[in-house]
Every structure is written in structure tokens, then in C-alpha cells.
Amino acid sequence: MALPPLFDSLALPMVAAPLFIVSTPELVIAQCKSGIVGSFPALNAREAEGEPIMLEAWLKQITEALERHNQDNPDRPAAPFAVNQIVHRSNQRLERDLEICARWKVPIWITSLGARPEVNEAAHSCGGIALHDVINDRFARKAIDKGADGLIAVAAGAGGHAGAQSPFALIREIRAWFDGPLLLSGAIATGEALLAAQAVGADLGYAGSAFIAAREANAQDAYKQMIVGGGASDIVTSSLFTGVSGNYLRQSISNAGLDPDALPGADASSMNFSEGRSKPKAWKEIWGAGQGIGAITDVLPAAEVIARIGAEYAAARARLLAVSGPFAGQGASA
Ligand SMILES: Cc1cc2nc3c(=O)[nH]c(=O)nc-3n(C[C@H](O)[C@H](O)[C@H](O)COP(=O)(O)O)c2cc1C
């Protein structure tokens, strides 16, 4: 099945993942202007009591910036943007945020931590599409049953809440019955990985950690430097911080006075988004990141990160198409 037409303006088959605390309107605007879907969690837009609603202000800023860009660059239109809704009973803002996003006609709605028909209906009410994030085939089936239009398969190695399954197995199982929009998440930080996501059967790659060290990202300097200096072995998987298994930077766990090699587990009932985060330290001091951070070697504007990934993608594609040697043409003759 073809991707919905709203993806036609993409310069690369890529969606930038929403990052709790880290995603800002400036980051989203830069991502969309560079031709990939930019996104942010609605919960990142937070006002103090009695102040004007920040989510409205962010949606206005993003919408107007992208409209201006499109007027000035009709030959290079911006990609659409997405807003992430945490569909968890502890998110007390959900209903309000759905109403605001529908009013601003948000084109892409990303839902995580719960599949609910009324959230998909809110997306559809303004002409948007809903993509639900899943870690296995069972949750994928449930999400589509409840009315999601597409799926984000979160495989092993992804930053933040991550799955445990190999991307090969996960995409294969979902593609066996689902021919709608399918995104692959987990350690995609290079053009080669993006091309591989398509090769295994995903339509688009979904990348988060690649943008934590972007100039426009709201991450402390030390966090950005830990990404720049880190690699796959610096990532620790634990359920302690939010009640759900996730990937974090080892050094940030040690800096918080904990032993990253001896963390106790925690169960999902401890998850709480009413304060916007699940436990006092999660995300703010215990920093999330995925196994793909070895590809991030500098703090750069998002446009440069995307330009690098684009160049790698084109080169990898050309290299594969030009392949010669023992396996060239193997598929065709088999
Ligand atoms: C610091 C951080 C915060 C995240 N916050 C969210 C979030 O608020 N909502 C969400 O749906 N996913 C969140 N994610 C998960 C990403 O959406 C995505 O699945 C992941 O970053 C992809 O793997 P990668 O980081 O290896 O590219 C977060 C990931 C990280 C690293």
C-alpha cells in the first residue's frame, strides 16, 4: 500500500522521534525544513499555573514557520510535523491536548504507552493520521484494531522506552499482515541504517537519539557531550526509572549515585506522567539514549545531521545498486 500523500514532501524516508524534555519547536522546525517529519511530545509544552497555554503557542510557532518556509521555497516544501500524545491514565492533560491539536489540525499524531480509539478519532476529526508505537506484534494488532493508521515498530537498541526484539523479526511479523504505514525505530542514526530499515520492509525510519546533541535540542551540555563521546556499550537497559524497560546512558546513572550494573527492576504500575515524568529522576538526570549514538560525533545544527544522513543514504543506495561480485543478480536468477 502506498504511503499517505502527506509524506510526499519528504526529502528522506525519515521521521524524527519525539523526545521528552529534549524536543523544542526550534528543533521540529529545523527537521521539517530539512525535509523529514519533525515531532515533539505535547507534554514538553508546559506553562506555569495561570499562564497562557504553551501547547497553543508552540503549535502557532511551528505552523507559521513552516507556512513561511513553504511560501519562500515552493520547490522545497517542509515536511509535515507530528505531535506525540502519551496515552497513559496518569496523563491528566490528554483530553485538553487532543482538543488543542485537533483545532490546530496537527497532520501526524504519534501515540505511545496506550492505544485508545478516541485518540485516533481526534486525529481523524481534523484530517490527521495516527501512528502508534509498539514493541511487539501483539500490541501492533491491538493498535490497528483500535483505529491507528500506521505503526512505529520500536526494536531493540532504541533510546527511551525500547523493545527487546530484533528489527528483522519485528518488521517481518508485522509486515506479514499489515500493509499500511510502518516505521522502524531503534538505533537509526546513519543513512545506511535508514536504507536498511526500508530493506527489511519498513516505509520510513524513526530516529530519536541522533537529535539529542543537535544545537536546537533542549539537553544540557553534559548530556550532549555524553552522546558525542558515547557508543553502544555506554547504553544500559533498565525498567527502574519509569516502570517500563528503557535505554539510558550508563554514565548518567553512575553520576546519580547508582550502580548501572546492579539496578533493581520496577513494575509498570509505578509509571506516572501527572508531573510529566514517571519518577523524580527519570529523563532529567537519568538520560535516555539508544545504541546508535556512536554515529554522533559533534554538536551540530539539526540540518547538518540530516544532510549527513541524506548523503550517507544516497551513497549506500548507489553502492548497493552498483554491486558486483558473487551475489550480484542472485535474487533475479534464483
Ligand atoms: C531522551 C528520549 C526521550 C524520549 N521521549 C519519548 C516521548 O516522550 N514519547 C515517545 O513516544 N517516545 C519517546 N522516546 C522514544 C523515541 O520516540 C524513539 O522510539 C527512539 O528515540 C528511537 O530510537 P533511537 O533513539 O535509537 O533513535 C524518547 C527517546 C529518548 C532517547
TrEMBL record:
One of its GO terms (molecular function) is nitronate monooxygenase activity. SUPFAM superfamilies: Inosine monophosphate dehydrogenase (IMPDH). It comes from Profundibacterium mesophilum KAUST100406-0324. Signal peptide: none annotated. Keywords: Flavoprotein, FMN, Monooxygenase, Oxidoreductase. This is Nitronate monooxygenase. Its EC number is 1.13.12.16. The lineage of its organism: Bacteria, Pseudomonadati, Pseudomonadota, Alphaproteobacteria, Rhodobacterales. Belongs to the nitronate monooxygenase family. NMO class I subfamily. Pfam families: NMO.
